[in-house]
Amino acid sequence: MRILFIVYHGFSEYSGITKKIRYQVKGLRENGHDVRLCYYDFAENGHRCRYIDGKVIKDYGMGNWAAFRQRLDFDCIFDYCVREGIEFVYARCFQNANPWLIHFFNKLKKAGIHAVTEIPTYPYDQEFKNAYFLQRIGLIIDQLFRYRLYQQQDALVTFSDATEIFGQHTIRISNGVDFDSIPLHHPSAISHQSSTIHLIGVAEVHIWHGYDRLIAGLGEYYKNGGKRDVVFHIVGGVHPNERYRANAYHPGLQAIIDKYGIADKVIFHGTLFGKELDDVFNLCQFAIGSLARHRSGITIIKTLKNREYATRGIPFIYSEQDSDFDHQPYIIKAPADESPIDIQQIIDFIDDNSLKPEDIRKTVGHLAWKIQMQTVIDEVFK
């Protein structure tokens, strides 16, 4: 089958979203489909362009007018679909519903081309609560047109348990994993020989990750005479607003660290990749998932990070509902509230855990992107 995978933005080699999209495309191709990737980005000369597999299909030029045009012009994509015999369009939601996008998908529908849109996070409105003014305006426009937009498509793809979103029925899948890209956890000799507990959290840190709860838990643990040495390694970007400024949920990560005097117990590594990332993972015995999805109004979600931790074979903690892991013996469910995380519970769990990394990895074989993406195809064309 000829498939066009549409993304309404560009890519970054260091972005988890970029990697996920490429793994999804890879999964479709592994099932024998002819998949082309459509995206929007800047050319070397500064022009705003629409691309398919690295080739420009529309050059919008430079300046504000070019920026405006690319948000309204989808004819180049439609013409490509007709010309190349595309049978199925898989789009990734960018909270960008508008009349021109409605018109585009309506034309696809009339041409007999099937289409779905993936909603990466649902519900997502609450995530814009503290967004910039233009982002909030964009959300308002999306709210006005998204019901009409998705009526032009076959279904919405969701990683939640919702059976209907914006008036359209859903195809429910899990965030997947690419086993070729995630190495198995190999605890280092240092972690075996030392009594120190090392925790790792990998994220571009936002309020819904709830790392403030973990840091506050560390502070309370040491304040109350904690005897084991526990260190929290944060890998990934931390926006200054999250680390140094107060928000509706905490006074800033650094303020919590300073309050408890635990600067040597929280290590900010920044973004790491490859061997550097693996080395930190192998130093650690336990991983930290999202601890505050409830802050963005989400109770049920199948996050990519949980799946990556399980694929590595490292036990972890999270607070949302995730049916793929809620029953597994290698996870801790934290309460979905604002309480500090119980560090002693994590220590006891680590001491009692006997599952090997390869045993944990075996439990997520069905979450391979090849299987998850084929589920979408099977549902649309059944």
Count of helix runs: 14
Measured distance between first and last alpha carbons: 14 Å
Classify the beta-strand content into a percent band: 15-25%
Number of strands: 15
What is the overall pLDDT average? 94
Structural class: alpha/beta
Strand order of the largest sheet: 4-3-2-1-5-6-7-9-8
Quick one: biggest sheet? Answer: 9 strands, mixed
Low-confidence stretches: none
Helix/strand order, N-terminal first: EHEEEHHEHEHEEEHEHEHHEHEHEEHHH
What share of the residues lie within helices? 25-40%
Q: In one word, what is the shape?
A: globular
Global Rg: 22 Å
Task: Characterise this structure.
- By secondary structure, the chain is α/β, with parallel strands linked by helices.
- 37% of the residues lie in helices and 19% in strands.
- The strands form 2 sheets. It has a 9-stranded mixed β-sheet with strand order 4-3-2-1-5-6-7-9-8. Strands 12-11-10-13-14-15 form a 6-stranded parallel β-sheet, sandwiched between helices.
- The protein starts with a strand and ends with a helix.
Quick synopsis:
The chain has helices spanning 16-30, 63-72, 75-84, 99-110, 133-150, 189-193, 211-223, 240-243, 253-260, 274-283, 304-312, 343-352, 357-362, 369-380, and strands spanning 2-6, 34-42, 48-52, 55-61, 88-92, 114-119, 155-158, 164-165, 168-172, 197-202, 230-235, 266-270, 286-288, 316-318, 331-333.
